[in-house]
Design a protein that fits this description.
single chain, Beta-Lactamase, Helix Hairpins, 2 domains, 5-stranded antiparallel β-sheet, 3-stranded antiparallel β-sheet
């Protein structure tokens, strides 16, 4: 109510102060003009009275003016001394005093003496007036001539005879007080009219101000409800039908509300999509983490297999060395051939068992490699799904940023009324920036994940190729062991052909040494590849953890945005 009264007073001041100042100026100038006009009118009237007196006496009486020895005034042969009828009739009809001077003496007059109230006959005029009128034959006017203690508007004209000589003068005057009273009466009328105009203007201004105040108050309440988040509020249609600036403000406020409502609805939809995407991303990250754990287990199995293979290869190497020692012993001591043949038979069985174990380890290694390959493919698929989710997050972030820009523009247009919404638009823009930043981090992590996964695939290919080569060599070793067994059996059946078989056995020994050396090298390579794959898996696991944290942060941001949007109330 205080603000309502304030704007009414301001409008009253705006409308009435210039009007009062204008009224004062107009009254001042009107009074001055009126005074000048009345004075000019009095002057003309007095001039007309003097002329009328002269003309009347000239027409009534023939001859010149003269005075006899008794001091009686004649016009021609007619005595007009004491005949004040003409002057009295002028005073009674027009209110003007008049005097006829002969020389400098009043002979006929309507002016009364201040001492006894009789006619002021025999008194004289001011010497300056006599000088101007009678000697210089000029008319004389003054707004302030004191006669018998009374201030007059006075007009003097020369009184001439037929020969043009000045024998006196004629005076016409009006009391200054009567003129000033007339001016005051006219001034009071002007002031009364001005006062009525001011009062009527005040009433009209108050009515207009109240209407404006009511419209502004409704508009302020409408904008305040929008600022408080109530987007269901409506403004009275009569304010929208106004053709002035308030109507434009109401239309702009309604447009602001509709635009804000559209933005909030779009943000809510985008927030729901963002929440779903973050949850999907979290699930994908969890699935990927499980997959990485399985890959880690498979790599551990490969590592254990590689270690067993290295141990078995060492055992095979030692066995082959024993075979070489036996061959040398056979060459040196043929007598112990039977005993050595038994030892060789026993070594043959041990070699077969070792080769069988190597075969089993090789099969386990192949199965582990297949698991790693399957898990790598799953990782690639998950990484691609993550890339799709990242694309969706970036799209949502760009849309949110665009919505924030539009909201900022609309807030700037709204000025102070849109300041509260400008803060919300800034928070939305920050959310979009955080979403975009998180999406970029996820994209980088996913890119590294794909690179590591591709490296793992290539490594698995190399491991698979080496295992296949190892299998071939194991088969060769197995064949060689069979040949050794046959040689031992041949030695027991035919001791005479031992020397020939020793050469074959020596060649077989060399072949086995070569195979075992190759197998040892492959085992070392398998161990190195396994360590590299394990390191890559750890990096991948760290990336997945970072991805999971980012998805949780994204979900938290989505929940914060939802909480901020709860301030807005919209129609469901």
């Amino acid at each position: 109510m205080k603000k309502k009264s304030s704007i009414i007073f301001k409008l009253l001041a705006l409308g009435l102060i210039p009007l009062i100042v204008l009224d004062f100026i107009v009254t001042l100038f009107s009074t001055r003009i009126l005074s000048e006009s009345i004075e000019a009118e009095i002057k003309n009237s007095l001039k007309f009275v003097t002329a009328s007196i002269i003309e009347t006496y000239t027409n009534l009486y023939a001859g010149d003016y003269s005075v006899d020895i008794t001091g009686s005034l004649y016009k021609g042969k007619t005595s007009i001394s004491g005949d004040n009828r003409l002057l009295d009739s002028i005073k009674n009809s027009a209110g003007f005093d008049s005097t006829l001077y002969y020389g400098n003496n009043r002979l006929l007059t309507t002016i009364e003496r201040s001492s006894d109230g009789g006619r002021a006959v025999g008194t004289s005029a001011n010497e300056q007036i006599v000088e101007t009128v009678q000697k210089n034959q000029q008319e004389y006017f003054s707004p302030n001539i004191i006669i018998e203690g009374v201030s007059y508007y006075a007009y003097y004209v020369p009184l001439l005879n037929s020969d043009g000589s000045t024998i006196g003068m004629v005076f016409a005057g009006k009391p200054n007080s009567e003129v000033q009273q007339s001016i005051q009466n006219q001034t009071m009328r002007i002031l009364l009219i001005s006062t009525v105009v001011i009062i009527l203007s005040s009433i009209v201004t108050i009515i207009i101000a109240r209407r404006l105040s009511k419209a502004l108050k409704s508009t302020k309440l409408y904008i305040k409800q929008i600022a408080n988040g109530d987007l269901t509020t409506e403004i009275h249609p009569k304010y929208l039908r106004r053709k002035d600036e308030i109507g434009e403000i109401c239309e702009t406020s309604v447009l602001l509300k509709n635009t804000l409502l559209s933005i909030i609805q779009d943000i809510m939809i985008s927030t729901n999509q963002l929440t779903g995407t973050s949850e999907s991303l979290a699930i994908t990250a969890d699935n990927t983490d499980s997959t990485i754990n399985e890959v880690t287990k498979a790599i551990d199995e490969i590592s254990n297999g590689a270690m067993n293979q290295a141990q078995e290869t060492q055992t095979a190497t030692e066995s082959v060395l024993n075979i070489g020692e036996q061959i040398d012993h056979i060459i040196n001591e043929v007598e112990a051939l039977t005993e050595n043949a038994g030892k060789m038979s026993k070594a043959e069985h041990e070699s077969a068992a070792i080769i069988a174990k190597l075969g089993d380890s090789n099969d386990k290694t192949m199965m582990s490699i297949k698991k790693i390959s399957d898990q790598t493919n799953t990782t690639n698929t998950s990484a691609k799904e993550i890339q799709k989710a990242v694309g969706l997050i970036q799209s949502i972030a760009e849309e949110t940023d665009l919505l924030s820009l539009n909201a900022s523009i609309e807030a700037a247009r709204a000025g102070d009324a849109g300041r509260g919404f400008s803060v919300v638009a800034e928070q939305i823009r920050k959310l979009a920036d955080q979403s975009r930043f998180s999406a970029k981090e996820i994209e980088l992590i996913t890119h590294r994940l794909l690179e590591e996964s591709n490296n793992t695939v290539e490594t698995m290919k190399e491991v698979t190729s080496n295992i296949e080569k190892q299998q071939i060599r194991l088969n060769e070793t197995k064949n060689k062991v069979v040949e050794v067994a046959q040689g031992i059996k041949g030695s027991t059946r035919n001791i005479d052909s031992i020397k020939n078989m020793m050469a074959i056995l020596e060649a077989s020994k060399n072949t086995i040494v070569d195979v075992i050396s190759s197998l040892s090298s492959i085992s070392e390579e398998n161990a190195a590849v396994t360590e590299q794959t394990s390191a890559s898996t750890q990096v991948l696991n760290s990336s997945i953890d970072s991805l999971s944290d980012s998805s949780r942060n994204l979900k938290q941001l989505s929940e914060k945005l939802k909480q901020k949007l709860l301030i807005f109330k919209i129609n469901s």
